[in-house]
Each structure stands twice: as C-alpha cells, then as structure tokens.
Amino acid sequence: MSWILLALLTALCLALYNFFIKLAADQLPAAVGAVVLQLVAALLGGLWLLRLRLHGQPLPITNKGLLLAALAGVGVGLAEILTFVVFSRGVPSSVGTPVIVGGSVLLTAVLGLVLLREALTLPQALGLLLIVVGIGLLARGH
User: Fold this and answer.
1) Are residues 71 and 109 in the same domain?
2) CA atoms of 94 and 76, how far apart (whole Å)
3) Which residues form the EamA domain (predicted)?
C-alpha cells in the first residue's frame, strides 16, 4: 500500500478517534475516558506486536527509541485527557477538532524547524499561515 493511502487511512482513524471522544465527553469523566481509550489502544498495540513476533519479524529496540516512545505517550495521554475536557465544555466537534489538529500540525512544524533544523519552502510556510488563519476564524465564534 502506498504511503498516501496509509496516511489517508490514518486520517480516517484519527477522525474516528476525535469523533468518538466528542460523543463520550458528556458521558463520563475525562480521566476515565482517557484511561479506557489508552487501555484499548495498548491492547491493539500488543496484539499487533504479538502478530509481528509470531511472523518472525525482527524488532530492533534501542533505549533511545523506548524513551522517545514514552515521551510521545506522555504527549498523547495528556492530549486525550484535554480533548475530553474541551469537548465536555460543549465545543462543537466541527470547531474543536480542527483547532486541536491544526494547532498540533502547526506546533509540530515549528518544533521541526527549530529543534530539528528542517527546511521550510514558501508553499509550506503559506500552508502553515493558512492554518493559523483557520484556527483564528474557527475560534472567533466560540
């Protein structure tokens, strides 16, 4: 499967993630929702890892890789809790999700530029500027 199809499938999964958090946010406390979400995600990840091992795929692991994955886990865990909190305050999914996702894309790009010294082309810079404008427009009404 090409990377673009995988990326679009990933986008679909993230859309479902945000959509179901929105629906669940009024049904239970943010911490409970985040823990359930993380347990299910850990179960799926564990099954995927088991599948890889059963098929004899090598799994090279480094301490740095484990640390970076753990730091990503801290980020996603906090993001899940905060997403539940945002939606429990009545923010529409059509506003909250683009602000959260757009903001994360923008901040990730800034981190890449500053910390990883990645290059930015003019079209990419314009795209990031449009994200800023979009977040501003979405946030105006709420």
Assistant:
1) no
2) 21
3) 1-138
84 and 65 inside one domain: yes
Tokens 């673009």 belong to residue: 4
Domain housing 31: 1-90
Do 86 and 96 fall within a single domain?
no
The CB density around residue 37, as the number of other CB atoms within 10 Å, is 20
pLDDT-derived band at 140 (thresholds 50, 70, 90) equals: confident
**Which residue stretches of 3-62 are H helix?**
3-24, 30-54
Distance CA 18, CA 14 (A): 6
The rounded distance, in Å, linking the Cα atoms of 81 and 24 is: 12
Same domain, 43 and 104: no
Q: pLDDT tens-digit profile of 76-91?
A: 999 999 999 999 999 9
Tens digit of pLDDT for each residue in 40-60?
A: 999 999 999 999 999 999 999
How many domains does the structure of the chain reveal? Answer: 2
Instruction: State how far the Cα of 118 lies from the Cα of 122, in Å rounded to an integer.
Output: 13
